[in-house]
Amino acid sequence: MRNVLPDRRQLRGWSQQRLADELGVSRQTVISLEKGRFDPSLPLAFRLAATFDCTIEDLFFPDEED
Amino acid sequence: MNTNTTPRQTRWGRSRLFGGGSIALVAVSVGIGAVLSSGIGGLFATFGNPTKPWLAFAVVAIVTLPVSAALAWVILVDRTTITGATRNPDDSIENIWFERAALGAFGDLMIVLGLGAAAFAVFGLDIAPALLLSALFVLASADFAVRYLRISKAEG
User: Fold this and answer.
1) Do B4 and B68 contact (CB within 8 A), yes or no?
2) Which of A2, B31, B71, B121 is deepest in the core (most CB within 10 A)?
3) A51 reaches B (C-beta below 8 A)
4) Inter-chain contact A22–B4, Cβ cutoff 8 Å?
5) d(Cα B137, Cα A22) in Å, to the nearest integer?
6) How does DSSP assign B27-93, residue by residue?
7) What pLDDT, in 10s, does the model give residues A3-59?
8) Which ipTM score applies to this complex?
9) CB neighbours of A49 closer than 8 A, spacing ≥ 6?
10) At B45, phi and psi to the nearest 5?
11) DSSP state, residue B14
């Protein structure tokens, strides 16, 4: 799954650690999310959407082959 | 949805049962560990038929004290007060790695148990149960650790 998390985070001027603190997860989780190596759980996806004041669909997109 | 309620965090954390600081938690953990270790030492000295019961009691109690104290600490500590603890560990990728490593180690253990049972039945092997169970414990732990490290290195 692709995502625009790095763009959204950088728009706010946040570090990966800052976003991790906002979400209550490890920094490694944010790194893996941004690299597309980790699909978040539904609760985490909702927390991400709420953090960036948008919907989950605004953040995550299915890959072409999905 | 910001749930920032991170309490003050320290290396050893604080108790979730009786509050206080890290020193109180560690002291109580060591105390409980000492009681547990003394009990284990007493059981061994009584039922293990050692030639020197008091020496056996002392050795077993001392050797098991770190594990007993650590177990007491794990039960007593409020994990959110430990340095670096996240509020939502279940949503972190480390939890996924843990589950995958544990699943793989469980599968390996089932294979080893199955093959081992067959080998014991066919060849009539005779190994002390304590040694066998200890070996299985070490094998499963090492398997899990290696799998976790491999996964975290590949995906981290």
Assistant:
1) no
2) B71
3) yes
4) yes
5) 39
6) HHHHHHHHHHHHHHHHHHHHHS--SSHHHHHHHHHHHHHHHHHHHHHHHHEEGGGBTT--S-GGGSH
7) 999 999 999 999 999 999 999 999 999 999 999 888 999 999 999 999 999 999 999
8) 0.84
9) A55, A56, A58, A59
10) -65, -30
11) E
Place of tokens 């690299």: A35
As given in the structure block, the two tokens for residue B69 are: 């104290």
Contact A28 B4 (CB under 8 A): no
Residue type, A10: Q
Is A43 close to B3, i.e. CB distance below 8 A?
no
The secondary structure of residue A62, as a DSSP letter, is -
Question: Mean pLDDT across chain B, nearest whole number?
Answer: 90
A22 with B2: Cβ contact below 8 A: yes
Q: Which long-range contacts (CB under 8 A, 24 or more apart) does B97-102 make?
A: B97/B148, B97/B151, B97/B152, B97/B155, B98/B148, B100/B147, B100/B151, B101/B144, B101/B147, B101/B148, B101/B151, B102/B144
| Residues 23-42, chain A, touching B (beta carbon < 8 A) | 23-26, 28-29, 31-33, 37-38, 40-41
Per the CB < 8 A criterion, the answer to whether B13 and A62 are in contact is no
Q: What is the mean pLDDT of residues B67-87?
A: 90
pTM above threshold 0.90: no
